[in-house]
Amino acid sequence: MATVQVTERTFEATVKQGIVLLDFWAAWCGPCRAFAPVFEAAARRHPDVVFGKVDTEAEPGLAAAFRVRAIPTLMVLRDGVLLAAQPGAIPAAALDELVEKVRRLDMNEVRRSLDEEQNAGAAPRAARAGGA
Q1: Whether residue 57 has pLDDT greater than 50
Q2: 19-25 and 81-87 beta bridge pairing
Q3: Domains identified in the chain, total number
Q4: How many whole angstroms separate alpha carbon 119 and alpha carbon 16?
Q5: pLDDT score at 128
Q6: Cβ–Cβ contacts within 10 Å for residue 60, how many?
Q7: Is 126 a residue whose pLDDT tops 60?
């Protein structure tokens, strides 16, 4: 599957269900351009996963909402829940390993954990995908 462009308008529908990896990037960013073929190849290896690209220049609202401070930054979501944020380019093998970790997550347990944190009055933090 090819990567998809994600905008503020398409964001909710894109991340609502399933595993979604979002690459926050910009055209002027050298490391972003170097990471792009790795990300696109991973999209072909994992056709059941949505690989979305968010152009931070065109979508500053999404970049701000995710507190993106460096690019490229990879955001990992499953069923609308943010699981991990990873700044910097990621090697192909690490990207594949991350996808497998997210596949193995028990999302009921993740939601239970997040609910417990919110009920305890703590500021909720993103669940981590097996240390990702």
Answers
A1: yes
A2: unpaired
A3: 1
A4: 23
A5: 43
A6: 12
A7: no
Is 94 a member of any domain? Answer: yes
DSSP element (H, E) containing 52? strand 50-55
For residue 54, what are the domain limits? 4-119
Q: In this structure, what are the phi and psi dihedrals at residue 38, rounded to the nearest 5 degrees?
A: -65, -45
Among candidates 83, 95, 71, which has minimal Cα distance to 18? 83
Find the CATH number of the domain harbouring 39. Answer: 3.40.30.10
Q: Which residues are catalytic?
A: 29, 32
91 falls within a domain: yes
Q: Give the 3-state secondary structure of residue 27.
A: coil
Q: What is the mean pLDDT of residues 42-66?
A: 96
Q: How far apart are CA 119 and CA 91, in angstroms?
A: 37
Would you say the pTM of this structure is higher than 0.70? yes
CB-CB contact of 42 with 92 (8 Å):
yes
Residues 54/23, Cβ–Cβ less than 8 Å: yes
